[in-house]
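Q: Make up one entry.
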Amino acid sequence: MQLTYELIAAIFPIFAAILVGAALKRFLITSADIWAGIDRLTYYLLLPSLLIVEIYRADFSSGNAGTAVSVTLAATLGLSGVLLLLRRVITRNTPLFTSIFQGAVRYNSYVLLAVADAFYGSKGLALAIVFIAVMVIVTNMLGVVVLSAFSGGKSNFRRIVAGLIKNPIILAAGAGAILNVSNIHVPLPIENTVALFKTAALPLSLLSVGAGLKFVIDKQALGGIALSTTIKLAILPVITGICLHLAGVEGMTLAMGVLYAGMPCAGNAYILARQLNGDPEAMASIITLETLLSAFSIAVIAGVLSIN
């Protein structure tokens, strides 16, 4: 009973903030331009500040984060291969398939950071950032490649690579890692200034996640939506957990890999689906359903792994 209460206490604020964001978008701050500005502020300043500070302060001298990230990546790539092999069995509607695919393999980094902070504090944040730094590159590339191949969308590979290189999340993670391993001493006034910005990153990012939800389910694609959601929130975490256990990963590191695998799909998958001629309506439905149901799936993962 105590464990259940602690899980609710940890998870409830995260999804309450998401729902508050959805309510604000619908009833109070209805301007899309305002939310676009909040997204840019979070993406280019607040979240990078959090990444730099947490990685700079982190102690990576113990644990097997590298193995955990490699195994989690392998599980994601393996699932991606299976989905591509079964594409014609899953659906002959290729734009819909691209949304099913994105929903099954992409992750919401904002929710992961909030969950990691709630369960493990600064150590969890630092470990979550290691996963994000690697997986954000791979999953973005997977989404673009599949959309370009099966939806008729056209993409410029050079522009995609340039975008990833300039990605503020990747740059911030790299800067934090350099500061960490080089033992460069950052003057305390500067460190505290950056740390001040990072305190707003998680609440604002969760509000943005909520504001981006679209509470309309595409009835023509219910089967695909249900399949993608089931794979993302149930099948992939189980596969990842088994693989991590077999690889000898334990404790917080194993838990973070499983939690990462069970994160809902990233909101920018909708933008990608719209830009590259995918199925944006189905994509929006998948993102919304996964985000809402992940409150329960994350609780189940935490309960099974005895996270408290």
